[in-house]
Amino acid sequence: MSSLKFSVQKQQHRERAQPHARRKWGLLEKHKDYVLRARDYHAKEARIKTLREKVQSRNPDEFYHAMVSSKTDARGIKKQDRQTSVVLSLDEVKLLKTQDEGYLITLITQEKAKISRLQDRLAFIKDESVESELAKPSEDPSDLDYSDLDSDGDENRKRKPKKRLQSGKKSSNTTGKHLVFADTLEDALAHDGSLPSGAPELNSELSRMHKLLIRELADRKQRVQQLEKVLQEVQLQRQLMTNGPKKKIVKSDGSVTWKWKPQRKR
Fold this sequence. Notes:
This is Small-subunit processome. The protein is mostly helical. The protein is built from six helices and six strands. The protein has helices at residues 2-7, 31-57, 66-69, 90-134, 185-190, 200-240, and strands at residues 71-72, 78-79, 144-145, 160-161, 246-250, 256-260. It has a two-stranded antiparallel sheet.
């Protein structure tokens, strides 16, 4: 009988669906959903009741300094101060400025090394473009010698370049290579015509690489300028923390400089 009890299929109790007339209200709310909604409603109701009691029992003459120092945003929510804000001493701030200065110097050194490598790549690309033009075979018929013929007497001929002796003159293929470095993309486009006209596919690829490298070189140089500016500001802040009389000088263009009184070192 035990096997028969487990073999009989039990009745499946399905949850009641939302009636057709109430489908505009969404899914049918179950009892567990009602419990969560009721708890949330009563919690909010108790919080509002507590706030009303505080407002009714408050002292109108009460004052504390947090009323002045604290701030609220546009929605009226109080802005909390940072819990990790600790007042540091002057020596600790100087140490942090020194660490910032060392980090900026490291970044500037790395960027200058990358700039140097980019300039070497630009020189290599320019050198390749010149060599590709010089490696082209000459098609001038006057440079070929047809004096030696085959034994069969057919039209197959051996091409041999004539040996020309020129006194005091250099060949056109031995011209010096002139490398041009451009700092901006406009300069690169202006000097783009200096590439040889032969091998259009090679020249187009070299020109595209040249433009990309020029753009990257300009961006890195601009980043070095920004880092050097920040480094000067950090160094100035660290110098202002030192002791000794100093004078603030405002120039005509609005820039501010500082001048320290010379002191005799021990």
